[in-house]
Amino acid sequence: MNAPLNLSPRQLLQQRLQDAQTATPHVTVNPQSAHIGALIGGVDLRQPLTAAEVNTIRSALLQWKVVFFREQHLSHEQHVAFSSQFGELTIGHPVFGHVDGHPELYSIAKYRRANSYGSEPERRPWTGWHTDVTAAVNPPAGSILRGVTIPPYGGDTQWTNLVAAYEALSEQLKAFLNTLRGEHRFSPPAGANPTAEYLELIQQNTLVSQHPLITLHPETGEKILFISPGFLKSISGLHTRESRVLLELLWEHAVRSEFTVRFKWEPGSIAFWDNRSTAHVAPQDIFDLEFDRQLYRSTLVGTVPVGADGRTSISVQGNPVLAAHGAAF
Ligand SMILES: [Fe+2]
């Protein structure tokens, strides 16, 4: 038998998934684009999974960065039970709270507090491309989003693979980015007109962290262009204009269409993404439609990122995002 010598991280992930699938031939994994997204079938998420099924789903997640399921009509309790098989769950949201009676779940409604501007048409959200909660020193490892009320058209979510984005950069730029760190914080974008309630919430729960621009994936060893556009406000050590222009370049690069996948929701759809190596964008078109849209999210407790240069992230303000059962609320 030949040892898998000199395999790249991607080849190791492919090998791991192949081995996992051998043990679970009833579970299907169908890629949805060249670099990101796979549709998983053959499992009933209302039931406890076998260890082999958990391994196949985790292996598919590590390779494809976001995995999708259809026709999984879970209750809140089943959503929490499914998620818990992949790690400890955080409180619903460190700033915006949780679903009453379900501390692990965050409600993603069409008009939610995280987006609150107040009156129409200012209720339009400002949420663009982002990685969840990167203002925390330990952003969630993964997020599990469940669709309940879904418009007949519109409201698709897109994800992008930040490993593929990193790998497509020039070697010269990679080397420069390896030396840099950025400041991530919760704050409304320039020009927003947030409500008093929103401002009070983020002032009471201010989260600011410094993360490396290039992080190492703690499970796969892959290098990641860790540049959550919604939260990353500046690059430390650069002049304001240098920082702004470089971030614009990186954000534009990171969401090139070939690194992305677009998912059309149905009631009972679930998207489970690796929050360490992806960014996603909340759909804006639902605000041009009268349909309602309601999803629920759980998130897995994450570790403090480590940069490609070996330095870890630093908390500037606020607390790490801990497990729901150890949280104050
Ligand atoms: Fe998000």
Can you characterise this structure?
This protein is an alpha+beta fold and 329 residues long. It has a single domain (9-321), classed as Clavaminate synthase-like (Double-stranded beta-helix), CATH 3.60.130. The chain contains seven helices and 18 strands. The strands form four sheets. Strands 1-2-3-14-6-16-4 form a seven-stranded mixed sheet. It has a four-stranded antiparallel sheet with strand order 5-15-7-13. Strands 12-8-9-18 form a four-stranded antiparallel sheet. Strand 10 and strand 11 form a beta hairpin. The protein is globular, with a radius of gyration of 19 Å. It starts with 8 loop residues before the first helix and ends in a 12-residue tail after the last strand. Mean pLDDT is 91; it is low at 117-122. Bound molecules: fe (ii) ion. Residues 130, 132, 280 line the site of fe (ii) ion (FE2).
Subunit arrangement of the protein: single chain
Strand portion: 15-25%
Structural class: alpha+beta
- Give the strand line-up of the largest sheet: 1-2-3-14-6-16-4
CATH architecture name: 4-Layer Sandwich
Helix segment tally: 7
Integer average pLDDT: 91
Helix/strand order, N-terminal first? HEEHEHEEEEHHEHEEEEHEEEEEE
Family: Belongs to the TfdA dioxygenase family.
Protein name: TauD/TfdA dioxygenase family protein
Domain TauD/TfdA-like: 31-281
Keywords: Dioxygenase, Iron, Metal-binding, Oxidoreductase
